[in-house]
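Late entry, flavin-adenine dinucleotide complex.
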Amino acid sequence: MDFSFSDDQRLLRETVARFVADRYGFEDRTRMMAMPGGRDPAIWSEMAELGLLGLPFAEADGGFGGGGTETMILMEEFGRGLVVEPYLSAIVLAGALLQDAATAEQRAARVERIVTGDLRLAVAFAEPRGPRYTVDARETVAVGDRLTGEKIAVLGGDQAQELIVSARTSEGSTALFFVDPAATGVSIRGEAGYDGSRVATVTLHDVAAERIPGDGAAHLSRAIEAANAALCAEAVGAMAAALDLTTEYLKTRKQFGVPIAAFQALQHRAVDMLMQLELARSMAILAAASLDRPAAERTANIAAAKAHIARASRFVGQQAVQLHGGIGITAEYKVGHIFKRLTAIETLFGDADHHIDALTDLGGLAA
Amino acid sequence: MNLDFDADELAFRDEVRAFLAAELPDDIRTAVADRTDLTKEQIVRWHGILHRRGWAVPKWAAEHGGRGWTPAQKYIFQEELSLARAPDEFSFNVAMIGPVIARFGTDAQKERFLPPTASLDIWWCQGFSEPGSGSDLASLKTTAVRDGDDYVVNGQKIWTTLAQHADWIFALVRTDPNAQKPQMGISFLLIDMTTPGITVRPIRTIDNHHEVNEVFFDDVRVPAENLIGQENKGWDYAKHLLGNERSGIARIGLSKERLRWARATAKEMAADGRMTQREHARLLRELIETEIDLKALELTQLRVVAADSAGGGGDPGAGAAASSILKVKGSDIQQRMTEIMMTLAGPAGLAQPDLDHGRNEEPQDRWLPAAAPYYFTMRKVSIYGGSNEIQRNIVAKTVMGL
Ligand SMILES: Cc1cc2nc3c(=O)[nH]c(=O)nc-3n(C[C@H](O)[C@H](O)[C@H](O)COP(=O)(O)OP(=O)(O)OC[C@H]3O[C@@H](n4cnc5c(N)ncnc54)[C@H](O)[C@@H]3O)c2cc1C
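Prediction complete; structure with ligand written out below:
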């Protein structure tokens, strides 16, 4: 048993933390989100220069060979800074699909450009009329290598130079395809998410696509596990930031002639938040450490972590707002934005109920 | 013991229902159902419809347009409004300043202000809270200094709801900085928002709406005739204003309406496959749990209504803790309903369409992008009106003697 970080991992944390502190202060973030497209393009290049974009890719493919722990470290710091860049979708989710599903040629054509920041992928799998959390393609169909259908809630979909799209094949199974967003027949409508992310609706009409071999649903499920482990870490960072702001506020805000931290009701609430945060941190570690475990264990552990963290996120987010009073619901103050991101994390890739169902079907956690 | 409404009360309920079915405009009903913003025009139009029916200020004294309803009728009226998806009553005029002017105002003030307050020809906003004075309202610092026939007001209010539309503000101001207790140096002033020296600055909230404001007063001259009651007695009038709403703060009708809505929406989503059977079954269970809690709250509310009807005799209606119980538990359930709305929306609720480039949702889906902003903004109900922490303090201290 060893919960400590290696020197390289500590260095990674310092690097990311410094980057977030220097370049991603709350005011910088607000300014960037007011730019066209809601982003400062320079940030992505800086992430490339720092080597962050190659983190999860194999060294043989031109990446830096990081594992679950490295992604956890990075995502926690991104969570603290409420980083809105599409790292989760373009690097973690799409990266997992490239690693696990794409052919060597398909990877060779992409990974290096991803690492340098020249290629951003987005993954389009949810459909407007389907069940909310399925990985099966239903109404997007592939006829040969040509796709027709509609995808929703595509994270970073309007910021991508290439899409990975799921579609139902003539055999009735789900397969994954690369699609050029500039190709004839593709239209993309991007919108801001309430948390500052970008989400897109993608419609495809008889669009040329390049097939990724294998069982698309299985590949998606596994990539979503990687994304959920990353989200757990991001939630921990966001919750830690919420708790820091709240404790600071309790000490400085005065009512009835004393700092409101003097009121025991509020002290207890803050302690409850801290307890939730620490338990969540433990579960985020479990999720990260489970990524390279055998399938059944990995799936169960990550479901448990996400279920737990979704609930913790809700509690910590709501209480952080409550303890701030009116200030907590203003757009000019960071805590409300943390609450919104924690809300999105709760629902992305399966809410608590969804994962509890999944774990029930699996028969629970291994003893 | 009899928990049913009597025949007169039921007849009254039918009358209200018929009126709402005939008179509530579709666009307003839809906006309320979808939890999208009402425009000023919609609020004014609906208030006008109620006013013409004589139902804009039913709880006021008869001489000022009130209906002399029993507490049960008032309760039924409010519940039916909510269930029909009518807008909330315009509380600043109807529940707050109107009753204060009627009770403590001079005859001249009543004559001048009550008719346009009832008709919403004057739109009022509430200027109590300040940056340094929220829960501890009595510490407020905005000053009013007597100068001839005027008061000169300086200072700042914050969180002033819909001040951007307001014609007048009723404000608490400090007139005696040396009073023995801070509560004893506060006065209650009516201030015309067009007076020179007033600046309204918007505060954008996390749902991206503009509902609250900062209001700055820079040497604002207010005629002394706009003082309510006596100088330095404003705290008493404010307490009257804040305490006079025992029936209604729990907003039970609103939560009932949300329950109905959630059931219907979940059914549709299960039917068209957006929700699995398992998700649907779980949601129904959660709705039942909420419904049970709501029933307990409703009966508690009705005990209060009955106690008020009996004029204090019989069941004390949950006693002195009643308002706090209703406020805390009512806000809990309202917030729980917004969480259920979020569960219904799922990840598809993440996208916030750019309202300026109006996206053409299917009509049944307009609620979808509104679910998250509504969830976010409804965190306010446990903060304002005496936060839920403050309510518990009040019960512990003044009711239980702890
Ligand atoms: C959307 C919205 C609309 C509003 N509209 C209006 C309006 O129209 N007019 C107006 O005058 N005001 C309005 N308010 C202000 C509202 O009344 C105040 O926000 C409220 O009184 C709380 O004050 P505060 O925000 O300064 O929080 P604070 O009083 O600073 O409280 C911060 C936290 O400390 C807790 N706390 C404070 N004291 C204690 C204690 N003794 N024991 C335990 N916990 C404590 C609070 O519960 C809260 O959680 C509005 C507020 C909101 C959010």
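The first helix of chain A runs from residue 7 to 23. Will revisit in the morning.
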